């Protein structure tokens, strides 16, 4: 049999070979979630006769066009509700048991796909001798509409369809990846933003236990879940916008997908996401992790120095904002906490955009990452912490080391289309990419990210908080976010009092 033809549990797949790497694209890991399967947990895929073509990507999950995502290399020219597919890159289909790296894409739970040019697994496969898998999962209203309180048992897990899709993909990997040269007993999940937040949920999700052994969380942790009550309010608002009576939810299964996506744009960002539904996700992931749900999973976690910059730089509300406008933006974001925050972080001096970015970077990204690390350390789990400090020169340097900037460095895809628009073209980029790419490979291989081309990287602990700073001169710094961390601890004490 040709090396590009692999036999999965469901049938034969014809892939491609490019240079030394084999690739199979658009492999179904679940039944198409359409019609009566909308808002339901994924089901096993159907088998097929003959050899299925696996040389092109599947459609991506239905989503709205978003300029920021296109800037990140997201292509939505081919969209369809039938989107539950994955892609595999491997050095060979021999019986060598290679580490498996499974990428969960970001996009605020409403955008993105596993087929972005940034997520080309060829370099990982060729340089690291690892098998790489990227996946699609249901997004937005299709992946996270919590109908359980409204529609009863039939919709018990509808608020977590997107997460359950990820579990189904991981189960497919357990059952099939050996045929692609991978080791089902050495699986590392890695993801960025909503992808990392998804991994935070998977760490506390009963059905995901045992399906992966290591986890890399880039700019996301285990804090981003909704209570059932909040998710039900969002669902009620969307049903009203769609003019669907709570007693007639089956109408949702017949509606044109465009109508559903359009309605979901009416709710604020991050309103649709994982839900503590009491069934698939019985409790908050942080609570489950504190109890030891992930005590067998080694963690590599980190953030970017200036995460929030990209969101405020492109926000028209910040353009030419005067002092009154700036104050109202702070008030809208921080509400009653503003006096405490103002006192702790600005010494009651004038509020500005730089402080706003710093506060949201700390509250959304850095603090949850530190919390997850501490929960894992309490169980004696090895944890490594990093911070990405390399600053992009584009837009006059305003973005600095912003959200998502590390992705093409991790993947070693700096030469892909669109990447220079975000990173610039400086030759100093490649050595940073070489360091990160190899660290991620080593972590997937052994659970330890140390490499010969980096300073010695100690495990994270609460005494030293040793953190690898990735930059043109990478270095270990102890507790690099100490000022923000201590101030946030003081703010949260006020919240509890």
TrEMBL record:
Q: Which Pfam families match?
A: COesterase
- Which organism was this protein described from? Neobacillus bataviensis LMG 21833
Which range is the signal sequence, renumbered to this chain? Answer: none
Regarding protein family, the annotation reads: Belongs to the type-B carboxylesterase/lipase family.
Name all Carboxylesterase type B domain ranges: 3-475
Do you know which PROSITE patterns this protein is assigned to? CARBOXYLESTERASE_B_1, CARBOXYLESTERASE_B_2
Record-linked InterPro entries: AB_hydrolase_fold, CarbesteraseB, Carboxylesterase_B_AS, Carboxylesterase_B_CS, Type-B_Carboxylest/Lipase
Q: In its UniProt entry, what is this protein called?
A: Carboxylic ester hydrolase
- PANTHER family per the UniProt record, alphabetical: CARBOXYLESTERASE (PTHR11559)
Q: Which GO terms describe its molecular function?
A: hydrolase activity
- Keyword check for Hydrolase: yes
Q: Into which EC class is this enzyme placed?
A: hydrolase
Q: Which UniProt keywords apply?
A: Hydrolase
Q: What is its EC number?
A: 3.1.1.-
